[in-house]
């Protein structure tokens, strides 16, 4: 098969393979790539962040943590 006088299986096919590998790497890898959307985290992580930021009191933290750990143990 010819493509404007050049063989399709030459550099043209190589560039398609390179682009496919790059797209697979960008969208299918589980690594933290800059600009990629991150997950919110587990409920305990969110609770710890709220406590560290001072949004909830120590009593609320302990009560909610006990509830979450009890639910996670089931």
From TrEMBL:
Tagged with keyword Membrane: yes
UniProt KW keywords: Membrane, Transmembrane, Transmembrane helix
Transmembrane feature ranges: 6-28
Domain of life: Bacteria
Protein's name in the database: SHOCT domain-containing protein
Organism of origin: Dyadobacter psychrotolerans
Source taxonomy: Bacteria, Pseudomonadati, Bacteroidota, Cytophagia, Cytophagales
